[in-house]
Each structure stands twice: as structure tokens, then as C-alpha cells.
């Protein structure tokens, strides 16, 4: 019998790529998603890639009654990957209560149900934002947690604390892994799934590809006075498929009970930092598409620079990011051209 994994937010960008990798590895996947920032057609695209349609239900995980009813129906779940959350730094500054309510309540409802219905394992979608602005780079998992620079980052810090305290209280009945990932970009090699934000993109690469495709007049680059090589912010950009594969490795570690502690933390990045301008230039070089962009003021909530020290994840999980930034950006552009019917 296949091991059953629930993927919350599984129709979204990272979630859908992870569902594909889980199905390819022989897991039976169940998805819960409220479709607030995703499209139901992604289910068709997942099925086209893998030949398997994941089980799907649409509801909001902040609804405790519906969460309880779902777990009552699905008695054989062995693990959860929890993606479902609001995730835009800038938006979180403007709508903090939306972020606190959505991100915290959904996790609490899940953990409560896991304890009641004996689901033993959770992989939590955390973020490098938990580090704030690190004092030392590259940042390791042992780095002190700095004050969050945005409500979004703060929700990830608080969620990690909720995880820690809950797993401690459950006294061994629930185990967890928090994957602190950096900046996922790119699309699946089939160009069947990729990043497709609802409305104006909040992330850099879909804004780049939409600008190159003519949907946006110009790209805004936030800030040119950071203490970096060219004044623009530095991030660690990782191919979304590499990131998805890290979740499969984490699930196996939990269901096979190879985890060393009840709750473990891993950085999931490439270990290389690039400035925003370097990423823009790399896109132009890979695609041959010049980008119309302008420098504007800093965006509230953004940090100056962060990239991962990945040694612990590489050695302990046996996982490593494989794709180059050039390959990753090329995949994002192929995806954009396909969905826009461009030659």
C-alpha cells in the first residue's frame, strides 16, 4: 500500500512541483487548497506530467470544523507537508492581520488534528526570513534568530515556535522537519507547471518574465543603496524542482524514522547569493530578451542580503541543489512563453 501524504496548498507553485515529485516517488498524494492564490487547472497539469490525478478537496484550513472532518475521513495519512500560507513580504506589511490569522491558525488547526487522529509526521514550509538580517553570511541553521523585518517573516518565526512547543507537548507522537528555504524560481522541465501568480506578481522572477512577455511595461527594482556589489539586494535563488525534491527527502526521513531529533531545521538553498541586477542580467543573457527596468525606493520589509550555508542539509539529508541559475531562468521563460502562447 502506498504511503499517504497530505499536501496543503498543493495546487500552488511550490506545492504542485512537490506533488509531482512525491507521485514520481510512489506516494499517494492528497491535496487541500482554498485556491486563493492558485488555479484548479493545475490538477490537470499534474496529471498530465505523472499520469496520476491527486486527491483534492477545496477548503480553508483556518476552518477548524472542516479540518477535523477531513482528518476523520482520511484515517491512513502518514505525513503532512504544510505549504498553505500567505507569503508575500510586501503585502504582509500592508495586511498584517491577514497574515497572522491565515498562517498561524491554519498550522494550529493542523497540529491539533494530527495529535487527535494520530498523524505522526509534518514537513513545514519555513523560510530564510526567520533569520531576519543575519549577522554572518552565509547563514547556518545555528544562527541566532534576529527580529523579523516583516509580518510574513514573523509568522514563520512564530510558526516554528508553535511547532517546537506542540511537538514537545505531544511527547514523541508527532515529529517534524522545518525546511527554511530561500528564493524558489523556475518551472518544471515539461513546462506544464510553473509560477503563475494571481494578479500582479509579488515575486521577482514572474515579474521579470511577464515584463519580457510584454504583460508589464517595466520591472521595478527595489533599492540601489544596499551594501552589496551593485547596491541591489542579494538573495539565494533555487530551482523549484530542487526545492520540491528536498521535501520528498524530508518525508522519507520522517516516515522511515531516521530523524535525529523530534524537530529538525534545514536550510534549502544553493549556497550562492546573487544581486537582483545580476539575476536580471543573467535572464537577459540566457533568453536574449532585454528587460525594461527602473530602480525605485526600497520596499518595506525587505532585508539587504541573505544566502544559505547548505552543508548541514547536504550532508545530513543527502540532498543538494543541482540546477544552475541559467537553467532555472531558462525554464521560467519557457513556462511563461507557453502559457502566453508566445513563439
Layout of strands and helices, then pairs:
Elements: E1 4-8, H1 13-24, E2 28-32, H2 42-50, E3 55-57, H3 64-73, E4 77-82, H4 89-94, H5 96-116, E5 121-127, H6 151-170, E6 175-181, E7 183-185, H7 204-212, E8 219-222, E9 234-235, E10 237-239, H8 240-255, E11 263-268, E12 274-275, H9 276-287, E13 293-296, H10 311-317, H11 325-339
Helix pairs in contact: 1-2, 1-8, 3-5, 5-6, 7-11, 9-11
Structure description:
By secondary structure, the protein is an alpha/beta fold. The chain has two domains: 4-185 and 238-268, Rossmann fold (3-Layer(aba) Sandwich), CATH 3.40.50.720; 204-235 and 271-337, UDP-galactose 4-epimerase, domain 1, CATH 3.90.25.10. It contains eleven helices and 13 strands. It has helices at residues 13-24, 42-50, 64-73, 89-94, 96-116, 151-170, 204-212, 240-255, 276-287, 311-317, 325-339, and strands spanning 4-8, 28-32, 55-57, 77-82, 121-127, 175-181, 183-185, 219-222, 234-235, 237-239, 263-268, 274-275, 293-296. Strands 3-2-1-4-5-6-11 form a seven-stranded parallel sheet, with helices on both faces. Strand 1 (4-8), helix 1 and strand 2 (28-32) form a beta-alpha-beta unit. The longest helix has 21 residues, at 96-116. It is globular. The N and C termini lie far apart (44 Å). 49% of the residues are buried. The model has no long low-confidence stretch (mean pLDDT 96).
